[in-house]
Specification:
Blueprint lengths: L1 H11 L8 H15 L2 E6 L2 E6 L10 E2 L9 E4 L5 E5 L12 E5 L4 E5 L5 E7 L5 E7 L9 E6 L5 E5 L14 E2 L5 E6 L2 E6 L5 E6 L1 E5 L6 E4 L5 E4 L6 E3 L11 E2 L5 E6 L4 H5 L4 E7 L5 E7 L9 E4 L2 H12 L2
Antiparallel strand pairs: 1-2, 1-24, 2-3, 4-5, 5-6, 6-7, 8-9, 9-10, 10-11, 12-13, 13-14, 14-15, 16-17, 17-18, 18-19, 20-21, 21-22, 22-23
């Protein structure tokens, strides 16, 4: 099955598949109606929610009041049902954990206590036992930086790789877990590396940056050295070029069902020129290459960094509004 899918993807990478776009939009509208699937950005004081049907609150910048403390940054889990919050100064209390895992309704699932510097990327393991982080602070002698994972419910922290060079810091804005929660995919020196946390063995797969593992485990997405959206089969190392070879400008995010990905680009059509858009958020279907623009960023631009897929966006938004009335 993987071989057949790979062959199909090779074909779609070479063809123009705009004829699928209307059907793809309809499929995404249906998913939004049935499951509340959306893309979300939860970073500090800013909350942005992009329903896949393009409806409200798309193009609204909201105040983030969803977390356990004011201005908590959050990262959605691969299954789109949980969120990991970072509680940080100056809003965290002295006895607060640094990381809290909650349901989207705000029910605590797990926590981790310990000092954390600036988080560039974060991923919750599928078994919900660990959180992998890219922690960056380029001041001399800053503690506990680099690629690491923490074990929830314990004080354990394991640093497995130092920080990237400062001029490559943004190449590490994405990482991911294998579905069995035994391996982490990350990038260093513009190479995609898979680390087995049980044995410590590392496997370099391909040149590239900003990797993420599909929730079904079949593919690892990444950005090539030329800025192309790519997939690689971690078993066979077969690679596939997405988006007809266009360049992208931000990390690739996976839908919880592995059907689709999202990313930003800087391409401009007629509508982009009229609206003074400098960047776009694109939703792309893996099986046939269908895609559409979900959001146009304003003149100041924007990228897909820190956006994640999640379910039940209306409930999440309602919880944010309730917190704002406390």
């Amino acid at each position: 099955m993987r071989a057949r899918l790979g062959a199909a993807l090779m074909a779609t990478s070479l063809c123009g598949c705009g004829s699928f776009t209307s059907e793809f939009r309809a499929d995404m509208r249906d998913k939004t109606s049935r499951s509340g699937m959306a893309l979300g950005y939860v970073n500090g004081s800013t909350l942005e929610i992009l329903p896949l049907n393009g409806g409200p609150p798309t193009n609204q910048i909201l105040e983030n009041r969803s977390g356990p403390r004011q201005s908590s940054s959050g990262w959605f889990s691969p299954d789109g049902k949980l969120i990991v919050w970072q509680l940080s100064w100056p809003f965290a209390k002295a006895d607060d954990p640094s990381l809290v895992v909650e349901t989207l309704a705000g029910v605590r699932v797990a926590a981790w206590y310990g000092q954390l510097n600036t988080i560039a990327a974060l991923a919750l393991s599928p078994d919900m036992s660990r959180v992998a982080l890219e922690v960056q602070n380029y001041f001399p002698r800053a503690p506990a930086t680099g690629l690491q994972y923490v074990v929830l419910g314990t004080p354990t922290r394991v640093v497995v790789e130092g920080m990237p060079p400062q001029n490559e810091a943004h190449a590490s804005d994405s990482l991911g877990w294998s579905p069995d929660s035994h391996k982490i995919v990350f990038s260093r020196n513009r190479q995609i590396i898979v680390l087995d946390i049980r044995t410590g063995t590392r496997e370099t797969l391909v040149d590239g940056i900003e990797p993420a593992w599909s929730p079904d485990g079949l593919w690892i997405s990444f950005t090539s050295s030329r800025g192309n959206a790519m997939l690689i089969d971690p078993s066979s190392r077969q690679t596939v070029t997405l988006y007809e070879g266009r360049t992208i400008t931000g990390p690739i995010g996976w839908s919880p069902d592995s059907c689709c990905v999202s990313f930003s680009d800087g391409h401009k059509g007629l509508l982009d020129a009229v609206t003074f858009s400098e960047a776009r958020m694109v939703v792309y279907r893996i099986k046939d290459g269908a895609w559409y623009v979900l959001k146009r960023f304003g003149p100041d631009g924007g990228t897909s960094s820190h956006f994640g897929w999640f379910y039940h966006y209306k409930e999440f938004l309602a919880n944010n509004n309730r917190n704002g009335k406390r």
